[in-house]
Automatic annotation (TrEMBL):
Protein source organism: Hyphomicrobium sulfonivorans
PANTHER family: POLY(3-HYDROXYALKANOATE) POLYMERASE SUBUNIT PHAC, POLY-3-HYDROXYBUTYRATE SYNTHASE
Cross-referenced Pfam families: PhaC_N
Protein name: Polyhydroxyalkanoic acid synthase
SUPFAM superfamilies: alpha/beta-Hydrolases
Lineage, broadest ranks: Bacteria, Pseudomonadati, Pseudomonadota, Alphaproteobacteria, Hyphomicrobiales
InterPro entries: AB_hydrolase_fold, PHA/PHB_synthase, PHA_synth_I, PhaC_N
Length: 586
């Protein structure tokens, strides 16, 4: 260690840190507003204060719980002293399997770091147990307390602090604190390129470019309007199925999660199976599209795209797939058509889609009336919702995986994040049209009107039970955005035959799971039950990807084989895939 260089770097760190702090104070992050860091910290403080007061209202139980915690601390201290004298002792607390925060060897080998690790685990688990056993905390209040407890315990991990993280401490000594200076530089860069709220870099954004090494499946944009471009993909087989497939992705993210690298592309896989594939690429709306409504996304979105697909291919009916929010829009559209007696689709597939939002998980915490009012005021003022706000919410659902590892890597270790295509897509967020987004949050999350049969769109009262076409429904077992329990509940509302499939992993990895990876599993053929747990009791587990299973299901509902269709034979080609809409930045 060079003392002179260390002193010089610390002075640079303090100087640069002062500038960054001053800039941060002027940003929206530090101001009260929907989904901002300041508002969430305030909400967490309020929730934790109320929870503590509730614990203190029963002093006997609280004292007993504290006594157990102190006994655990005492045992940990005794073990630490014994280890310092060279004795081998069994840990008082160990990390859960898969907890990567403590994978560095010194978390276990060095008594100092091992002490902080175990003290943290004891405290966090004590707090979780206290919350679990808190009486009188029900429904949304309990859900809110559990959510903010997770935020607090994730933030307080010793892995997040330089003096209690062995890797950071070693790096600081080895580089004479150059890592901290570099980390402050990376923080300043992230602030400069962020929108409303800070986007912590999760990957090296310079390693990827849409159309160059992402979203490269060949095709053409064959139709477009104000809110979408319709992409038709070039066939790769000698014959294709007669009935084409239209995919409606979520408008909250960009469609190319379904077309990452060729090895991970669900779109390429479907084309290679002999399907004529069309995909909607939603516009990245600005203030000029502020008036676009949920009804517009149905009429000018799915229904306009459907009409274009039918005109391009010359068929009467098509197959259609909706992913996440795109699936909710599709379910609404199918209900609208069924209620009116219109028949446009041969089958529908839903990928991690919620129709019934009763069990929608922690996202329900961000849709109460007060937050919706604040969000609506912000969107009305600007004419759109900056994508960073929804990205911030999604990251908070999994702070241990999506926030703190990058803070440690980028700002404490001073390292640029590793290139990863999926995380590049995750950071490539889009704006949202306020009228549409407000309707979606209020009518589905807050009021759950489609499931209740109370939703009206385009002057039509909708009944999802009238949807009788064959449906393929995919849920992901560890999904934190569209929980599998919620997806299953929605599938029970449909009026026709439903092929329900459960995949391993979460909202993205559970869907983007190529067959050659053999990374996760999936379940099928469970007997009809009122709950997902009941269905799982009789379901069959299969290794690998669900893609071939879905492909077989689609083949059975896609008509005869016919000659391949080149993109734009009827409508003409506007530009090459992936089109220009997807390349627009926030």
């Amino acid at each position: 260690m060079n003392a002179e260089e260390l002193s010089r770097n610390l002075l640079r760190l303090f100087e640069q840190g002062g500038h960054v702090l001053a800039e941060f104070i002027e940003r929206d992050d530090a101001k009260m507003g929907p989904y901002s860091a300041a508002s969430e910290m305030t909400e967490a403080t309020t929730t934790m204060t109320e929870l503590t007061q509730q614990w203190m209202s029963d002093p006997a139980n609280f004292a007993q719980a504290q006594s157990k915690l102190l006994q655990s601390y005492a045992q940990l201290w005794n073990n630490t002293v014994m280890r310092m004298f060279g004795e081998t002792v069994k840990p008082v607390a160990e990390p859960d399997p898969g907890d990567n925060r403590f994978k560095h060897p010194e978390w276990s080998q060095n008594p100092y770091f091992d002490f902080w690790k175990q003290a943290y685990l004891l405290t966090a688990r004590w707090a979780d147990d206290m919350l679990l056993n808190t009486e009188g905390l029900e429904g949304k209040d309990r859900q809110r307390a559990e959510f903010y407890m997770r935020q607090v315990t994730s933030a307080l991990s010793p892995s997040n602090f330089p003096l209690t993280n062995p890797e950071v401490l070693h790096e600081t000594l080895a580089t004479n604190a150059e890592n901290l200076v570099q980390g402050m530089t990376l923080l300043a860069e992230d602030m400069k390129k962020s929108g409303d709220l800070l986007k912590i870099s999760q990957t090296d954004a310079t390693a990827f470019e849409v159309g160059r090494n992402l979203a490269t499946t060949p095709g053409k944009v064959v139709y477009q309007n104000d809110i979408l471009q319709l992409i038709q993909y070039t066939p790769t087989t000698d014959q294709v199925r007669e009935i084409p497939l239209l995919i409606a992705p979520p408008w909250i993210n960009k469609f190319y999660v379904l077309d990452l690298t060729p090895a991970k592309s669900l779109i390429k896989y479907l084309v290679d199976q002999g399907f004529t594939v069309f995909v909607i690429s939603w516009v990245n709306p600005d203030a000029t599209l502020a008036h676009k409504s949920f009804e517009d996304y149905m009429q000018e979105g799915i229904l306009s795209a459907t009409d274009a697909v039918k005109r391009e291919t010359g068929v009467d009916k098509i197959n259609v797939t909706g992913y996440c929010v795109g699936g909710t829009l599709l379910a609404t559209t199918l209900s609208y058509l069924a209620t009116r007696g219109e028949d446009l689709f041969n089958s529908a597939s839903f990928l991690t889609t919620q129709i019934d939002f009763t069990f929608a998980g922690d996202l329900l915490l961000f849709t109460d009336e007060e937050q919706l009012q604040s969000l609506n005021e912000l969107m009305t003022e600007r004419g759109y919702l900056d994508g960073s706000r929804m990205a911030n919410v999604f990251n908070m659902l999994r702070p241990r995986d999506l926030i703190w590892p990058y803070i440690v890597n980028n700002y404490l270790l001073g390292k640029k994040p590793f290139p990863f295509d999926l995380l590049f897509w995750n950071q490539d967020s889009t704006r949202m049209a306020p009228v549409n987004h407000n309707f979606y949050l209020r009518e589905f999350y807050n009021e759950n009107r489609l499931a209740k049969g109370q939703l009206s769109v385009a002057g039509t009262r909708l009944d999802v039970g009238k949807v009788k076409i064959p449906v393929f429904e995919l849920a992901a077992k560890e999904d934190h955005i569209a929980p599998a329990k919620s997806v299953y509940a929605g599938s029970l509302l449909l009026g026709g035959d439903v092929e329900f499939v459960l995949s391993g992993s979460g909202h993205i990895a559970g869907v983007i799971n190529p067959p050659d990876k053999m990374k996760y599993q999936y379940w099928t053929d469970g007997k009809h039950a009122d709950t997902l747990d009941g269905w799982l009791k009789t379901a069959k587990e299969h290794p690998g990807s669900w893609w071939p299973y879905w492909s077989e299901w689609l083949h059975e509902r896609s008509g005869d084989w016919t000659v391949p269709r080149e993109p734009g034979e009827t409508l003409g080609a506007i530009e090459d895939a992936p089109g220009s809409y997807v390349k627009a930045k926030t």
